[in-house]
Every structure is written in structure tokens, then in C-alpha cells.
Amino acid sequence: MTTRPRSGDQTAPDTAAPDAAVSPTQVRRLDLPSAGELAGLAAVFEDLQYVLRCCEHLVAALGRPPEPDAALVEALWTGAVVAYVRCFSPRGAVLTDADLDGLEHADELRRVHGMLPQLRDHLASRHVNPRETFTIGAAQANDGTPTGVAVVAGRRPLVDDATVRTLGRLAYHLAERVDARMQERQQQVLGDAAALSPAELARLPLVHLTTG
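and the corresponding C-alpha cells:
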């Protein structure tokens, strides 16, 4: 799969030219429609890679004896769900439900895919604790008289291994599809850049690179 530079101080990026043996010394920012589309694809691809890494860590965390670290599992699962659903943002228009067509075990994948937007809203709620519910009751003595107030917490169950693995499969297959689109778009961007003269390229802003 394609590796891409990150934002901020950039590492030297991959280029579409197959015979490029040396990393470029200068990169000029392209404000072209094709470049914007490639940037959107790259952002979604990175989110899917993040989902995969979270799922890998989750499988290990869920199998850790004597019991999983609930805080770690919740953090990884929340991050994975939020990143996955963001890939289907209508604003970016990179992935849609139709991108699940043709995947192996499509029914199971669609079942998990379909529940994730609502789960994202629950896990990332600004108003409700997604981990526990609380019930207030009166503690009673043997004769029935109230002796105090009880705050009873009910913890919601952690995500299970099977669901994590299904999300991992979703992210893997979708990343393959996004990667293929990135390769096509890279060729288009390179063609658009080649149509610019050296003088036109020189007027474009530099992207600062770091190596290593």
C-alpha cells in the first residue's frame, strides 16, 4: 500500500514516477482539483490505517489475562470507530456504502458497518457517559427504614473480539480500494504538474521536508 507524507513538517513523499530512485529536494504545493482529490484520498487511507492499528492493539488487549484493561480497550475502540465513520463523511465524499459491494462475507460486514455511525455518536457523546449508567437508591436497614443513599453504577460491556476483527477486515478491504484510487489519482496529478512550466512551478509555495 502507498505510504504518504504527514501534515506539518513533511517527510519526503512517494512519487508516481516508477524510476524515481532519489527523494526530491524540493516539493511545490499544487492547488489543483486533482491534488485536492488525492489529499482527500490520502486522509481517508490514513484513517483506515489507524483503524487497523487500533484493531490490532485491541485484539491483544482483549486477550490479556486475567482481564482486559477497560480504559485501554475503550480508548482504542472509540478511536477506531470515530476514525472509521469519518471515512464515510459526505463532505469528503471518498467512501460510500456502495464501496462495500463485492466484499467477501458482505452481510456480516454490512451489519457491523451499519451499526457504527450510531455507536460513534454514543461513544463520542458530549452529554452522556458512554461507559456506565447510574442508579440512585435508598439503602435500607432490616426493619425497612432508610439508612443512606446508594449510587449504583452499571458498566456497559466491552467490545468483543469478533466485532473488532470484523471492523479490521472492513478497514483492510476498504484501504485496498482507496489505495488503488490513490495510484490512479497520482498519475493524474503528475500529468497536471508536468503541464506547468518550470517558471510556473517556481512560483508555487514550497512544502518543507524533513528526512529520516
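(Above: one complete record from the training split.) Helices lie at 33-62, 70-86, 106-123, 161-194, 198-202.
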